[in-house]
Amino acid sequence: MPNKKVDLPPGVLQPREAVLKMAPYNPPTGGRAHKLRLDFNENTVGASPKVIEFLRAHLNETALAIYPEYDEVKRELAEFFEVEPDDFTLSNGTDEAIQVLINTYVDDGDEVLLLRPSYAMYRFYAEVAGASVREIPYRAEKLAFPLDELLEAIRPNTRAVLIANPNNPTGTGTSRAGIERILEKATNAAVLLDEAYYEFCGVTALPLINDYPNLFVSRTFSKVYGMAAMRLGCLFSQSGNVEFLRKAQSPYSVNSIAALAARAAIQDQTYIQKYVMEVLAARELLYVGLEKLGIPYYESQANFVLFQAGQRAIGIRDELRRRGVLVRDRSYEIDGCVRVTTGTREQIRKFLSQLEEIW
Prior knowledge:
By secondary structure, this protein is α/β, with parallel strands linked by helices. It has 14 helices and 13 strands. It folds into two domains: 31-46 and 270-358, Aspartate Aminotransferase, domain 1; 49-265, Aspartate Aminotransferase, domain 2, CATH 3.40.640.10. Helix 2 packs across helix 11. The longest helix has 24 residues, at 269-292.
C-alpha cells in the first residue's frame, strides 16, 4: 500500500509513513565538556586505566587498516559472561542490539509491548519498523515495576516485549521470579531484558537463556565500564536465535578499538567493583541530602535517582547547568521530575551544595 502523501518542502523525498509519524529524538549531548556530568548515567570518573594501556600497546598503523576481527574478544567475553561464543553477538551499543532484535523478529504492524516511561530507543526502533506499540505505565506512587499489568497485557499476537531492568529513568525493576513469569506468558514474543545497569542491582536473566528460547539479554560497556564513547554492547540468547540475529546485523558494526577495549575492561574487575561500591555509597548520601532539603525522590536500583522538583524542574536543571553541574530534566514524561546520576560521594556533595543554594 503506497504511503499517504503529505506536503513536504521542495527537494525533500517522501519517507515511509512510519518515519513521518515518528517524533525526533535529539539527546542534549552538546556542551558537556569540563562540567560535572550527572545527566547521562555514565561512569563519572572514566574507564579503567588498564583500558588505555591496552589500547596503546595494541594499536598501530596496520591494526587500523584491517577490518575488525572478533574471535579473541568473543572468546574472552564468553568466558567472562559464562556463556558459549555462539550465545551472543557484539553490538554497536545497546541501541544496535535493540535494532537488530526488532529487525529480526518484528514486521510492519506487529505488536510490541513497552513500559512507560522507559528508554526512548525501544519506541524509536519499534516505530521505524512500523510496529504497533502498546505501553504499560509504571505504578504512579513509587514508580514500581508493573508486573501484573504487563502480564495481563501480553497476548498471543505480541511479537516483542522490551524491558530495561532496572529501568531508566525510574530506577526500579523486577526480580528473577518476575522475569520468569513474563517469559512463561510471552511464549510467542522475543523478550528483551536490557541490563545496562545490572552491576548496580545484581539481578540478571542471563543464566536463563538456555531455559527460555524467547529470552534475549543485552549488556553494555557504556555505563559502569566508562566506555560510552566506544559504543559497545552484547546481545545474548540461545545460539539458534543468535544465528538469525547475525543475519540481520551488519558484519562490522563494532570497531576494532572497541573490541580491544572490552578485552582489557573485563580484566580489571577490581576497578569496577570499587566504582560500584562508591556509587552505591553516593546514592545513599544523595538520599540523605534530598531528605534534608525536603525533596521527594524515588528509590533506585541503578546509578541514578529521580527527584521531584515540581514546576521548577526545568529552571533547576538550567541553573545547575549554569553552575557547571549537569542533570537531566524528565518532567516531559514524569511530571516535575529531574534525574541525577550518582557518581562519587565527592561529586554528590558538590551537587547537593549547588542544589541547596538554589532550592
